[in-house]
Amino acid sequence: MSAELAQVIQRLDVIKTELDYIKERVVDADMFLSKEDKEDLALARREFKARKTKTLQQLEKELV
Q1: Which structural domain, as residue segments, surrounds residue 49?
Q2: Distance (Å, rounded) from C-alpha 29 to C-alpha 31?
Q3: Count of domains in the chain?
Q4: Which of 26, 33, 56, 62 has the most beta carbons within 10 angstroms of its beta carbon?
Q5: DSSP 3-state of 32
């Protein structure tokens, strides 16, 4: 193996290690709710407390 090729492979190994490090620490955007998501969640909670929601079993019966 030529010296240049060995250097390229060594550098690629370093880059792979760096990418693995970054992937472990990157923040997943799906972990956070948008303003719209928060509003939808608040509405869903209010409807649930007001008993305006249906159970899965009720929905399944309606679909049959």
Answers
A1: 3-63
A2: 5
A3: 1
A4: 33
A5: coil
Q: Name residue 55's amino acid.
A: T
Residue 31 is classified by DSSP as G
What φ, ψ does residue 18 adopt, rounded to 5°?
Answer: -65, -40
Q: Which residue has 């909670």 as its token pair? A: 45
Query: What does the pLDDT look like over 38-64, one tens digit per residue?
Result: 999 999 999 999 999 999 999 999 998
* pLDDT > 70 in the chain, percent: 100
Rounded mean pLDDT, 31-41: 93
- CA dist., res. 22 & res. 7, Å (int): 23
Residue 63's Cα: distance from chain center in Å? 30
Q: Look at the alpha carbons of 25, 30, 34, 39 in this order and tell me if their dihedral is positive or negative.
A: negative
